[in-house]
Amino acid sequence: MAQTYTNDHSPSVMKTYTWRDASNSAAYLLPHLQPHMSILDVGCGPGSITIDLARKVPQGRVVGVEYLSDPLDGARALASSEGVTNVTFEVGDIHNLPFAENTFDVVHAHQVLQHIADPVQAFKEMRRVVKEGGVVAVQETSTSTLYPESEGIVAWSDLQEQMRKANENNLKAGTQLHVWAKRAGFPLDKIKKSTGSWCFSSSDEREYWGGAMEGRIRSSGLAATALREGLASETELQQMAAAWRAWVENEDGWLGFLNGQILCWK
């Protein structure tokens, strides 16, 4: 099945993801983990969450899968540098996971379903490979808000939305997780819905997020595609990048995300 990931795995994109760990991105799952558990992390990217989950199950094992091999060497190197040995990484498609039924105690996906072709099929596959009594855990962005807005940042947001719609991405996926899970066969009494949030407002946090957005605009597959398809000019892209830099340097800058979260027991 075709993938519809609008972003690529360029360094500017991976920079955004490496901040994520189990505490800031999967806190809703952590109370349900036991040291012996096996975990599948689908759409693992650079592996920062995957490796942190492996620390939570020292007598267990964790497998991270990504649909392309591009980020996996970096994930393996990160695990090695941090001395985490109970984690492996391999290529796998969330629509057709390369594992037998009832393999894992936990299947986890973070900010993945918004980018893929068929979220219901993804839930079916995650349900298939999780053990009886096991849990599927998914978090996706629902909405975001930023202060102060500027013409360049709004233009960047509009460009991303335009490209994601063209790729049939699932915008505001966090609002639909329970619907997709139910269609995939999870009964309502086995589904727990919740929300989580991120806030970026300190100077370091603004540099992390705004600097990563600036980097994406200056050098990423998304920016190259926008230029190639005539969706934005080089001048417009540079104006967007400058707007993010101005936001980073504004001590009043504030950005918040609301994430939808779901736990589904088999």
UniProtKB/TrEMBL annotation:
InterPro entries: Methyltranfer_dom, SAM-dependent_MTases_sf
Highest rank taxon of the organism: Eukaryota
Keywords: Methyltransferase, Transferase
Single GO term (MF): methyltransferase activity
Keyword Methyltransferase: yes
Gene Ontology BP term (one): methylation
Sequence ranges assigned to domain Methyltransferase in this UniProt record: 34-170
The name this protein goes by in its record: Methyltransferase-UbiE family protein
